Model the fold of this input.
Amino acid sequence: MTPVSIKLDRVSKHFDHTVKGQVYAVRDVSLEVADGELLTLLGPSGCGKSTTLRMIAGFEEPDEGTILIGGKDVTHVMPNKRGIGFVFQNYALFPHLSVFENVAYALQVQGRDAASIARSVSEVLELVGLARYERQQPHQLSGGEQQRVALARAVVFEPKVLLFDEPLSNLDAKRRVEMRDEIRSLQKRIGISTVYVTHDQEEAMAISDRIAVMDQGVVVQEGDAESLYYRPATEFVARFIGRANILDGKVISATEVEIEGLRLRVATRRAPGEVVRLVIRPEMIELSSEPGPGRIEERTFLGEKTDYRVKLGAETLQITATDHYRRTPFDVGQPVSLHFHAGAIHVIDGH
Ligand SMILES: Nc1ncnc2c1ncn2[C@@H]1O[C@H](COP(=O)(O)OP(=O)(O)O)[C@@H](O)[C@H]1O
Ligand SMILES: [Mg+2]
Done:
């Protein structure tokens, strides 16, 4: 299959009953999904992820903007003419039909002949690891298996693009991780351009080529997992993706900021004397038992890592240690020194 690109150009949508004073469900969203790429829309509940996805599918019509699939303007094209495979949160399987019949349905609607339907369905059930389940009914399957049927159903008619709306929300934690790996490997194998929606940052990081973080109807930042994690554009992104220390620092020079009397290396274009917002990830600070300005306030052993809460002047920092093999734990009340890894500090330029 030849993958096709998806493009949203300044797409907006409002609903008359939109709640909480947020007028637009989606506002001025521009996105591009390259051929064969998996782009995730990530953000808290109500930020406009589903509305964006539903506009790509054609279930909602934008108020403004255009949507292109494979370079073709589909903004006002009916959903069934867009070549979209859609996987929902609730699998919406037909309860009284077998696995085979559930998957065959879309092809029967297209009027394909029985022999070719049987071939396609068998192939796709093989692809999602359900070859032996043809005759089962949905209620005889686990949640993960039901979701695979939904996946088979979405890909059986060879759509040009795949859309997922929180497909794993109904599964337990272990199955969620398994299924997200399966979805990812299937998506790569068929090489199909995909938009995936989730509110779970870890899921987004695990599954995506690129992530678009949404807040209140707008895309606040777009990039791969590493760039969002290490170079968040706003405080919202810094807090939403991973854990973060966010604190004020004073610019000393183009290469130094000061936090609580500590001078730390960072490259910044902001003027000396300016107060800036800084993001420091908990694992980018190393503790040492050499007495220093830090004081351990709390220790939480979590197996592969230990989380410390450390007082530094008026600030309280979260610091994660994973180097258990080479040091004894620090005690509550113990004075410690803090060592900031190169590149530990990121200056936030947005809001
Ligand atoms: N059919 C609708 N009618 C009215 N308001 C809607 C409708 N669908 C979504 N909204 C509103 O639009 C905003 C974005 O919703 P949605 O796209 O479902 O967010 P998400 O999927 O990120 O949770 C929310 O404020 C929601 O209440
Ligand atoms: Mg949603």
